Structure to design on (173 residues):
């Protein structure tokens, strides 16, 4: 399996990243049989500091492994909000789909990381609105109060309902 379980990873962590560089691994070179780069491994391990260093040395944020997953997918699967924030700040493609057609937000939701899913969905919505040249808000009444765009409100409501359903299922309610 491409990502190592947390307990085993913690025992291996201290040596694994340094071994990559002692061996002279290139920043974007696949470091393992699954085609994962050091940035994939850092994101999968929730190692924000190492991921930041990778990003500063020119790591490709959208490089996909054998599953079609980029570092943003790996961070979403392990629930690392810190790594997700770094990747988003570095302009990683939030809407990039893996081989199963899933985005990072889809994976975060599927793995039960609701805060990560909401973060990614909110960022994606914001980016979509910027691309459309809209802010999601308009000065629509005579009092100058900000009113949210109904389409944006419907999309956010649907996301919140989806997250609520997932939360109820995971709580056993």
């Amino acid at each position: 399996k491409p990502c190592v379980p947390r307990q085993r990873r913690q025992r291996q962590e201290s040596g694994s990243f340094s071994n990559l560089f002692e061996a002279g691994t290139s920043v974007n070179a696949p470091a393992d049989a699954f085609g994962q780069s050091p940035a994939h491994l850092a994101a999968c391990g929730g190692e924000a500091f190492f991921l930041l260093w990778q990003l500063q040395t020119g790591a490709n944020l959208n490089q996909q492994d054998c599953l079609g997953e980029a570092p943003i997918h790996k961070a979403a699967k392990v629930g690392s909000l810190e790594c997700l924030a770094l990747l988003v700040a570095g302009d990683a493609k939030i809407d990039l789909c893996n081989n199963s057609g899933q985005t990072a937000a889809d994976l975060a939701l599927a793995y039960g990381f609701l805060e990560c899913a909401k973060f990614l969905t909110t960022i994606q919505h914001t980016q979509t609105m910027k691309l459309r040249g809209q802010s999601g808000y308009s000065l629509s009444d005579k009092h100058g109060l900000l009113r949210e765009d109904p389409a944006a409100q419907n999309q956010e409501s649907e996301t919140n309902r989806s997250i609520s359903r997932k939360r109820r299922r995971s709580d056993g309610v």
Notes: The chain has eight helices and two strands. The first helix runs from residue 6 to 22. The chain has one domain: 6-171.
